[in-house]
Design brief:
single chain, 8-stranded parallel β-barrel
């Protein structure tokens, strides 16, 4: 039983707001999709889009695909135009792809109102275009646009478009939920009704779903369960409006839940890495809560979950995360019990199982701190420092002790606003005083601290403040509200860590997060150097 995984990220997915692929981007996306094992990559619309024409030209010499075939996308011939003379059809052949997919109207209302032609001429357009492509040695797929809406309005006409395409030589005819308004039961009913009406076997049909009802993945799976063997998706569900059926969710569900061999062996485990890489190319932050491949897809927060996971991870994971290249994570929050703390500590390389009193104490501290606004869920570095301070023999040496710090903000006559910070520290037995300016109080404090430590810890030069988030905690109001600060720090070597600080004063909250960040980073750098 052969399934056709047809990816249209470069065509339909590229219609998402905010995405604009360059030709180089498109080539990179195609390589990643091929690595993931899809069977077909729809590269775009040659002739209509100069960028897509260039992509297909370069693809002939720059792409060495192992699993996928490139597909050129276009439309049927224009009404009243000989197919051999239609420049858009000629551009499809000039793309020199082994497969061509053409879109055809299948809703009689669109034929008459959008194309402004007759139903008979539309069928002739489908017949002529498919036959012409097949005669030139191309495998032809036909996307029946607005098929489900058209079938519900006039099933006889929509069915006639399908049979016309099949009789002309189309390998697959794809039912498109172009408006994205269908539900799974509707998809199933239409597939069965179409097969019964036309006699076309379900395995000659395809499915293409938009996500306007948040059912694109479910609708695609419903079609496959009804016998369809060709399904069209986009990476991460990219597409216009709410998007398309997510490639990674669809193939993971079909392969892991239904046991269908939709990808070559060894490809599914690349899902998480490929998903993230494609998001980077699209310049869109990865969706942390995306099914299967999101960073939170196998993240557990409740203490009850963690207790069961400690016994058997699959008790609260619907699949082994490694089969899609992902990892399980334990989140430490006020909901955490002893099992959560123990598992999270083990994840960080710290064994609390043999120290029950320490485990109890760390659990108490976490709950107490979370109750007043701390959040260790996104601050693994601060959590590790807390555990190490409590675990005998594991505490990290603090790189300095604070005598005092002072921050002032000056609004100058010329309108410039400058912050200045002074820190007084004890560093390896030496009293150090340093002053620095910054574009804000926290920046000035960071600069002053780095200046004070530079002589003793030159490795700080590679540390970079990657992100700074400030949140006023719920239930606190006004200028004396409790503030939580999250700092993300990077060492310039693609390694980063997050720390947290909480206080009524935003500068003090920032100071707590900042000192944790430097302590953790310096300790990790020292450990990496020692093992190198």
């Amino acid at each position: 039983m052969t399934y056709q995984v047809f990816d249209t990220t470069l065509r339909d997915g590229g219609q998402r707001e905010g995405i604009s692929y360059s030709v180089a981007d498109k080539l990179a996306v195609a390589r990643l999709l091929d690595e993931f094992g899809v069977g077909f990559i729809e590269g775009g619309w040659p002739g209509a889009m100069p960028k897509d024409t260039e992509f297909f030209r370069r693809a002939r010499t720059e792409l060495d695909l192992k699993h996928a075939l490139l597909v050129a996308f276009g439309a049927t011939r224009k009404a009243g135009v000989d197919v051999a003379e239609d420049p858009q059809v000629r551009a499809l052949l000039d793309a020199e792809t082994p497969v061509v997919c053409v879109v055809a109207k299948s809703d009689i209302r669109h034929v008459e109102r959008a194309l402004r032609t007759t139903g008979a001429e539309n069928l002739a357009m489908v017949r002529d275009t498919v036959a012409h492509l097949v005669a030139h040695g191309r495998r032809a797929f036909v996307d029946c646009e607005h098929f489900f809406d058209g079938f519900r309005f006039d099933p006889a006409y929509a069915a006639s478009v399908v049979t016309t395409a099949i009789e002309a030589g189309a390998e697959r005819v794809v039912m498109c939920d172009t408006n994205g308004g269908m539900l799974p039961s509707m998809i199933t009913a239409v597939v069965h009704a179409l097969v019964e009406r036309t006699g076309v076997p379900a395995d000659r049909l395809g499915i293409h779903c938009q996500n306007d009802t948040s059912c694109a993945v479910a609708n695609t799976i419903a079609a496959v369960e009804a016998g369809v063997r060709h399904f069209q998706c986009t990476a991460n569900g990219y597409g216009e409006r709410p998007g398309n059926a997510d490639l990674f969710a669809v193939v993971s569900n079909l392969q892991l839940k239904l046991g269908l061999p939709v990808l070559p062996d060894g490809c599914l485990e690349k899902a998480t890495r490929v998903s993230t890489a494609l998001a980077e190319i699209a310049n869109i932050a990865p969706d942390t809560h995306q099914a299967y491949v999101g960073a939170a897809a196998f993240a557990h927060k409740a203490g009850l979950h963690a207790s069961a996971i400690k016994v058997d991870p699959l008790l609260y994971n619907h699949v082994d995360p490694s089969v899609v290249g992902n990892d399980m994570r334990i989140l430490v929050t006020e909901m955490a019990g002893r099992a959560s703390i123990e598992l999270k500590s083990r994840e960080l390389g710290l064994d609390l199982a043999g120290h029950p009193d320490t485990l109890t104490e760390v659990t108490r501290q976490v709950k107490d701190l979370e109750a007043v606004g701390w959040s260790f869920e996104a601050a693994d570095a601060s959590f590790e420092l807390l555990v190490r301070d409590a675990l005998p023999g594991a505490a990290l040496a603090r790189p300095f002790s604070l005598e005092s710090y002072r921050v002032q903000v000056e609004h100058r006559e010329d309108g410039a606003v400058v912050s200045e910070a002074t820190v007084k520290l004890r560093v390896r037995g030496e009293r150090v005083i340093a002053t620095a300016e910054g574009n804000g109080p926290v920046n000035a404090l960071d600069e002053a601290l780095r200046t004070a430590l530079a002589k003793h810890y030159p490795e700080l030069e590679s540390f970079e403040l990657a992100d700074y988030k400030v949140r006023i905690l719920e239930g606190s109001h006004g200028t004396n509200a409790v503030t939580r600060v999250l700092l993300e720090t990077s060492d310039g070597d693609n390694r980063d860590w997050t720390t947290v600080g909480v206080h009524e004063n935003v500068v003090e909250a920032s100071w707590k997060a900042l000192t944790d960040a430097l302590t953790y980073g310096l300790a990790r750098t020292a450990a990496a150097t020692a093992t190198a």
